[in-house]
Amino acid sequence: MDSEAIFGLLGVGVGGGLTLGADWFKTWRGERSPARVAARAVIREFRVIDAQLGQCIEHGYGWPWERFDEYEWPAHEPVLAAAVTDELQWRKLEDVFSVLMILHALGPDLDRDRDHSPGEEETQFQVLVTLREDMTEAGLILGRWAA
Fold first, then answer.
1. pLDDT digits (tens, 9 = 90+) for 76-104
2. Which of 21, 71, 119, 138 could in theory staple to 96 by disulfide, Cβ–Cβ 3.0 to 4.6 A?
3. Residues 6+ apart with CB under 8 A from 6
4. What are phi and psi of 68, to 5 degrees?
């Protein structure tokens, strides 16, 4: 066999491999695209909520009920549910959003009905601190799909 035939054969093999790799990458990227959009939207929402919670904790006032009229999460939940296949990670995401939705739904009533005792203020403060920590963990989980 002469060297031209060998180089021709190598060229065909390398070209085919590159084409196959590029096609696979485009398909993989396309499948991740909806999850990427969803994860980025929810992470952006986390950042806004985190900043508000930080203000609440720093200044010692309660949950900013009126600031969160809508959440991105419900619109993106089906896409994220398909993407996040690890059960523990999915539970963490669901837990964070369940707490956010419950606090949002019950918040004004909780503020109106509470007795403002020192123990209750400490409990509310701890709930906000724990929620921020859980949101940070959930954001790290979502970061895998946002990249």
1. 889 998 888 899 999 999 998 888 887 77
2. 138
3. none
4. -120, 80
Neighbours of 13 (CB within 10 A): 10
Distances (CA, A) of 68 to 3, 61, 107, 127: 70, 16, 11, 17
Q: Which two tokens stand for residue 114?
A: 């509470």
Place of tokens 């606090």: 103
Residue with tokens 């060998």: 6
**H-state helical runs in the chain:** 3-59, 73-83, 87-113, 118-146
- 70-74, 104-108, 112-116, 136-140 — which is least confidently predicted? 112-116
Q: Which residues, including other chains, have CB under 8 Å from residue 52's CB and lie 6 or more apart?
A: 64, 67, 68
C-alpha to C-alpha distance for 67 and 32, rounded to whole angstroms: 31
Number of residues in the chain = 147
**What span, in angstroms and rounded, lies between the C-alpha atoms of 45 and 121?**
26
The CA distance from 64 to 55, in Å, is: 9
pTM score above 0.90: no
